[in-house]
Amino acid sequence: MAGISLNNVRKTYAGGVSAVKGVSLDIEDGEFIVLVGPSGCGKSTLLRMVAGLETITDGEVTIGDRVVNKIEPADRDIAMVFQNYALYPHMSVYNNLAYGLKNRGIGKAEIDRRVREAARILEIADYLDRKPRALSGGQRQRVAMGRAIVREPAAFLFDEPLSNLDAKLRVQMRIEIKKLQKSLGTTSLYVTHDQLEAMTLADRLVVLNGGQVEQIGTPIDVYENPASTFVASFIGSPAMNLMEIERSGEGWALSRGEGLSLTCSLNETSAILGLRPEDLHIIEGDGAINDPLMLSVVVTAVEPVGAESYVHATLGETGQEIIVRAPGKQHFEVGSVLKVAAKKEKLHFFSSETGKAIALEGNLQPA
Amino acid sequence: MKREHIFDHLILIIGALFMIVPVVVAFMTSTHDAVSIYKNGLQLTWGGHFEETYRAVLTEAGGFTKSVTGLTMLQNSLILGLGFAIGKIVISMLAAYAIVYFRFPLGTFFFWIIFSTLLLPLEVRILPSYEIVQGLGMMNSYSGLIVPLIASATGTFYFRQFFKSVPDELVEAARIDGAGPVKFFIDILVPLSKTMIAAIFIIMFVYGWNQYLWPTLITTDETFFTLVRGMKQILQVWIGAQIPDTNQAMALAVLAMLPPVIIVVVFQSWFVKGLVESEK
Fold first, then answer.
1. Which residue does chain B place closest to A52, by CA atoms?
2. Fewer Cβ neighbours under 10 Å: the N or C end of chain B?
3. B74-133 residue pLDDT tens
4. CATH of the domain at B252
């Protein structure tokens, strides 16, 4: 077991396309790190560079205390789980698990012990004689995990391992992967484009965008304090409401029209305001408002999902769309006007030029 | 629906008869003795001389030098057919492996060079090929029969297409599992190509077995004659001044057709599998 550290790692392809533009990251021993980002953000490339399947243009990858830039994948002491499982179709499950160990020259008895142990943990002991094509998607996924476990590697690398499974199985396997990783205590690097998977699995999240790190932090930290508008809109579902605002006299106004009342000051002339749907609460009737933010919105659609409803609305005539999370049993009429408000500590501000978060401490005062 | 079925079957049955009847006629005729064939022509009934005729063509030495039997020719044909098929598969698999999995300068160019040899069948280059084999002193030898024909553009092309359809993740998984290029080829790629190999084996075996022109040029020593090439040669001598041994000619023809037929019949499911589906 070992930590992994990336030091200013870059990947530039022969055509000059730059997929990873200098990523530095320290993964502690036993930590579960999830790389998350939209497709094309370089997350898979980064993982493949750690695995040794992709050459490293610049920078250093260290596993344990070895720089592995020039070391073959097989000698890096890692195991990888692929999106399409990549099981050897002509080998039985047993041989799929045993193949890597045989190539390492490990004794028959030891191979047998490890394979049976992994099969027991993953509950695939009954299928050891079957060929992969006789297995369901979930079982194949387990075999792919088994192949990683038997290696007893310093680190697991997962490349979107759940994206070929149906939704129900995905949730189940997600929990199993998490449990397994905790019980084995093996350092893991997991790539996904699914922010929910990322949130639920990670000890720490790495949000990537355009080959660069946007933010590194625990899921809750990233959720509560997104470092940029990109992270704010990527993490969380439904996404954070973002709207451009401008200073207007004593307070602030929407860049695109009426409907906002924000009574606090900020040392900027314009900014992007971010509001999580669940941080907005609906004000009944003419109730007194102590909150610094008040919005007057017109309901355009309601999505009841049971425990809660997502109210889609526009801000006055502006066309600025906003989503508010409301309790499930409440009824909303399309076309009706709602007043919503948010507490001061729930407001997020981002620079309108760079999209980076603006620190609020000492910056945000009541007007 | 039903009428269409009958019509489909009718066409298939006619097609099958068209292929089979001449073979049945040849086989039935070969079981009669030479005299009755001479008197009554081709036969469609069992003649009862099966054993003696076939024993004669298989074991009695014939030919100009009286040194070659049907059995030797059968054996030579088998060696040619097997050597031809196995050799072509080995060479074309290795060539396709190199082309698909290794990045070397002008790789695609070399593939198209190999592919373009399809435009140059044996008949076109027969004189230079003969010249080379003769110069190397490979006349009248199995290697002379097999090696010059062993390169296969068709095989290379088929295997290249197949290897290209093998997912990259499999190569990567094998790399992480510590399988080098040779191990990957033997442990993963060859077993995956099983059905493909079977299909190509059938085509190539039949093709090799039926070679006529090349063995005719390369073998002058009758002990290296193959069935297809030797049949006529041997019989001319047997005919002599008496009634022609049509029964023996037919028996040899049946023997020459039998192995390819057996191989195709036995492996036909593999054959179809290899060409239409792949285990991945």
1. B176
2. N
3. 999 999 999 999 999 999 999 999 999 998 888 889 889 988 888 888 888 889 999 999
4. 1.10.3720.10
Q: At A145, list the tokens.
A: 């995990």
Residue A116: pLDDT band (50, 70, 90) is: very high
d(CA B270, CA B276): 10
Chain B 157-186, residues with CB within 8 Å of chain A CB atoms = 167, 169-170, 172-179, 183
Q: How many domains does chain B divide into? A: 1
Q: Which of B169, B175, B279 lies closest to A90 in CB terms? A: B279
One-letter amino acid of B155: G
Which is more confident, A76 or A250?
A76
Cα–Cα distances in Å, from A79 out to A118, A120, A144, A174? Answer: 14, 19, 10, 18
Which domains does chain A possess? 4-234 (3.40.50.300), 241-366 (2.40.50.140)
Instruction: Give how far B168 is from chain A: nearest CA, Å.
Output: 9
Nearest CA in chain B to A151: B177
3-state secondary structure A286-346: CCCCCCCEEEEEEEEEEEECCCEEEEEEEECCCCCEEEEEEECCCCCCCCCEEEEEECHHH
Classify the phi-psi angles of A319: left when phi > 0, otherwise alpha if psi is within -120 to 50, otherwise beta. left
User: Do residue B173 and residue A80 have CB atoms under 8 angstroms apart?
Assistant: yes
Q: Residues of A with CB below 8 A from B176's CB?
A: 51-53, 73-74, 78-80, 100
Measured at the alpha carbon of residue B90, what is the angle toward residues B87 and B92, in degrees to the nearest 5? 100
Which structural domain range is residue B187 located in?
2-276
Nearest to A86 among B167, B183, B194 (CB): B167
